[in-house]
Specification:
Blueprint lengths: L3 H7 L12 H17 L5 H17 L1
Helix pairs in contact: 2-3
């Protein structure tokens, strides 16, 4: 693997989400929904991030 040393060099700095029942909700219901809107040029990045933050907070508050 030609780039293995690059991956190995950052392995100690990678942070994974802590296990939670809310991770999938946040990813699917908030992040993917609004990232798709940005990629489809249906929403500005600024508006999408604002909406994403609102949706994420709703999940966290449950």
């Amino acid at each position: 693997m030609p780039y293995r040393s690059d991956y190995a060099a950052v392995a100690d700095t990678v942070k994974f989400n802590k296990p939670s029942t809310k991770n999938w909700q946040i990813r699917d219901m908030a992040m993917f929904k609004y990232l798709n809107e940005i990629w489809a040029n249906k929403m500005s990045a600024e508006d999408a991030i604002a909406q994403m933050q609102t949706e994420i907070q709703k999940v966290l508050d449950k």
